Write the structure tokens for this entry.
Amino acid sequence: MQLFAYNPIGQPDELLVWVGVLDIATPPEVTFTIGAETIKPLPGCTAFEPLGDGVCDKLGRALNHRAIFRLPWPATDSRFTLHVSAGNQTVSLSSRRIPAQLPSKGRDSFNLLLSSCYYQPNDKSLPLSRLIDNIKPSPDFTLLAGDQVYLDLPSSQNLPQKKHELARVLGKKYQTNWFSAHLQQPGLADVLRHGPVLCVPDDHEYWNNFPLSQVQLNNTHWEKDRNNWRDLAKQLYERYQMSPAQCDGYFRQDIAPLSMLFLDGRTWRDETGMQMFNDATHIAIDQWAQDLIARKKNNLPAVGLLSSGQALLIEKPGRWSRKLADMEMPNYNDFAVLTSALARLFALDIPMLYVTGDVHWGRIVEGKNPRGKTIFYEVIASPSRLIDTVITDQINWAKEMWRDAKGKGKDFPLHPEAPPHLSDIKLANLALSSVHRQQGDHVALLRFHAIPGGLEFSVDYICTDADEKKRREHSSTQGPFKLLSL
């Protein structure tokens, strides 16, 4: 049997623990301890259910399962260690309860780790988890902002068309990342075990540019195959990544004066560009904006934070690009739900921060209103481990050999660069400018403090390249930046 556990984000009054077991038809009883104290689960826990990878014994019984347990928070504001035991195995995770308010200046910051686009086959030389373990200050909250798995890669793979065989292939990729510690190989296990963790899905949780068919992916050419793949990928996402607190398509968490809303902009997408969010998410966006406005009217500082699986400030792909590359949020009609909510906030001088990944480069963009007040930032961190891109990588390596011969080699020849200009991108009436661009494998740590009238934050861009020299040269702290509503 293999055992793994982590703490997905939950409602403020619940400590959630995801427990997964592999290679056993009847999962054993699970016990939880903190120090010498046994912790009894609260009512409302889910029973063990199959992970959805189709792995069964000779009697047809599923062998891989997961359950989510609700525990009471321990009576401490400090990080604690929880031991999870099942059968003859024990694993440990750590967590810390998210505070109701941001700390003031002079106290330890509230720290949000932002990471996305993790391609496990390229995490060999120096595991990402080891680098994240060394981040100081330690993260209080981990946001994995899409592409935690790449179900559609490598593009040369020959995926089976039979649904039960496809389930095994896709499920194996999740097992590699989630159970990596037991397998003694790189993966996400040692990243996930420092909770709380929130996973936002993007296209590679399904396939590139989901739900549109892709030329290079045979299993997307026919509707039946797409439906099989979609159903399996959705079930795997729900069983591995999705907290019950996200089941309506979004997650809301307030840490005054910060009001955070995390959106699933991928699972409910249609192929026509009509809708990327479900109806419940539309309502949640409007309620989030109304609550921020109410705080402002009550003379309370109010700052919004939004996150989804794609960049907010991105050029709208044209007719062919949106089919061959990726449909971006501006391609969807209900992008206007987001932009209209933001316009209402900006008109009342309520600032907002947007954080995401996806694009394989990092960036900080600043937005000022017509009076010159800074009212918006977008922070992107991507990738933590870059994917392989057939043909493009070979062309870039050939160019790099030519540059090396002339003494003009690049540190990251396979990584794209963030666009230098934003002239064609509009957001309300803001003047937008890039204040930082990041290239290469990296993650970001956002450090928050409450200040009079709003908040202050800094962004530590942490290069995660295996080369120590590159890590030193391409890691930096940006900020501090201020967002004020009063």
